[in-house]
Specification:
With about 220 residues, this protein is mainly alpha-helical. The chain folds into two domains: about 1-165, no CATH class; about 175-205. The protein has nine helices and two strands; from the N terminus they run αβαααβααααα. The protein has a two-stranded antiparallel sheet. α2 crosses α4 and α5 packs antiparallel against α6. It is globular and about 65 Å long. The model has no long low-confidence stretch (mean pLDDT about 85).
């Protein structure tokens, strides 16, 4: 029974931290792995009408996140792979409570997808919206280190989350390197305008299929 308590738990006890924590770096790596898997499978389903890969991806996603929430995050296959990838990086500790809340949201989304897509074998706007939400959540986690699910933690539990990535939970003034000037904002807006103008001017030219420069395809 004593060993079971050590095995089935959520978060690690780290000296200097008053609550169980997790390593944000391996979480981001795992999110990147899941994002790539889900993106490829959703893209294949959307463009080719082949949902086989997506069904496997949903099953993998659901099993992985169930292990995180109901067994122990350190036994999650994607988190183990993430740990191996970032093993030489200094850990960035985050509070386990808000991560568990976010992953419970993931369990609900993945379970809904599993029932509708795998068990019932159906597609609908519901599955499409859930796929989009999962992609957005995983992308923000992996690319920006922003846990969107964690944002709802304080709203539900009415308490401040502890040990957030980048200390975003703590209100403080930005350092000089973090500030954005009016000129930088203007550059971004100008770049967006340039992209729109480029699409408007060159869309017909860019739509022409490229020719085979060396005639390799013609010889087949």
């Amino acid at each position: 029974m004593k060993n079971e308590k050590k095995t089935i738990k959520f978060g690690e006890e780290v000296e200097g931290y008053s609550i169980p924590v997790l390593n944000e770096r391996e979480i981001r790596a795992a999110a990147g792995i899941l994002f790539l898997m889900m993106f490829i499978s959703i893209f294949t389903a959307a463009t080719q009408g082949d949902f086989l890969l997506l069904k496997y991806a949903v099953v993998i996603f659901l099993i992985d996140i169930l292990i995180r929430v109901f067994v122990n995050p350190k036994f999650s296959p994607t988190l183990i792979i993430g740990r191996l990838i970032v093993r030489n990086q200094v850990p960035e500790y985050v509070g386990a409570k808000q991560k568990k809340f976010a992953w419970i949201i993931g369990v609900v989304l993945a379970a809904t997808m599993f029932i509708l897509l795998v068990v019932v074998n159906s597609i609908s706007p519901i599955t499409g919206i859930i796929c989009l939400i999962c992609l957005v959540f995983l992308f923000f986690e992996s690319a920006f280190g922003i846990c969107l699910g964690c944002k709802f933690y304080s709203m539900v539990y009415k308490e401040k989350a502890q040990y957030c990535p980048g200390e975003v939970c703590d209100v403080k003034s930005r350092q000089e390197i973090q500030k954005t000037s009016g000129l930088q904002i203007l550059i971004v807006l100008s770049f967006i305008a340039f992209i729109v103008l480029t699409v408007f001017v060159f869309n017909d030219a860019f739509s022409v299929k490229p020719f085979d420069l060396f005639g390799i395809q013609n010889t087949k």
